Amino acid sequence: MGAAAAEPAAVSLDWRCRCGSLHLRLDPGAGMHGICYCRDCQAFHHHLDAAEWLRPGGGSDLFATTPDRLEVVSGAEHIALLRLGPKGIFRWYAACCGSPLVNGPPTRGVAFTSLHVAGLSDPAAVGPVAAYLNCKGATGPTEGRETPGRQFIFPILFRAIAARLSGRYRQTPFFRADGTPVAEPHVLSRAERAAAAPTG
Ligand SMILES: [Zn+2]
Ligand SMILES: [Zn+2]
Question: How far is the CA of 41 from the centre of ligand 1 (A)?
């Protein structure tokens, strides 16, 4: 898979929302650190009034992994869900203080999740940034050049398929045993979506 997919050392990392009420633990043993500059990821932050968690240029700092590597320690009742539109991906956040938690597919069957690195106790522990995505959406200079999709999509697909085949996809903080999401998704209205649009 090349140097870009090098695995960080296996340690357990704490993730906390901005107010500290929601606490998770991440096993960063397999995943990829990337920055996404797309307008939707920026809108997610703006809607939550969480722009302080964006990187320069409007980047979302993400660690793409499988959901079984995340475990809620406390504050599960604060986990909330929104979609930027009726077909939008699931964007999970801490409702207590409006902190972006993870981006993920709208189904448990696809074992993929992108954790917002800003909440980690030691962001450097997820390794160097290996992918810069959707640089066209940046509001300023990006920290790196656009990464070709094949460099990150195959390792992610491989992990999602392995989790599916082993049954590990069922271990997730975001879906119940019957496969339904643990929170009802709130779909942003057109007015809410417009208000959250990034400027610049
Ligand atoms: Zn909070
Ligand atoms: Zn994005």
Answer: 19
Q: Is residue 200 part of a domain?
A: no
**Residue 145 belongs to a domain:** yes
How far does the centroid of ligand 2 lie from the alpha carbon of residue 87, in Å? Answer: 15
Give 30 Cα–ligand 2 centroid separation in angstroms: 20
- Looking at the predicted structure, is the pLDDT value of residue 152 above 80? no
Q: How far is the CA of 22 from the centre of ligand 1 (A)?
A: 6
164 within a domain of the structure (yes/no): yes
pTM for the whole thing? 0.91
Residue 5 predicted with pLDDT over 60: no
Distance (Å, whole) CA 62 – CA 113: 9
Q: Where are the beta strands (DSSP E) in the chain?
A: 13-16, 23-26, 32-36, 60-65, 70-74, 79-83, 90-94, 99-104, 113-116, 131-133, 186-187
Count: domains in the chain: 1
Which has the higher per-residue pLDDT, 46 or 160?
A: 46
Average pLDDT, the chain: 92
Task: Identify the pLDDT of residue 40.
Answer: 97
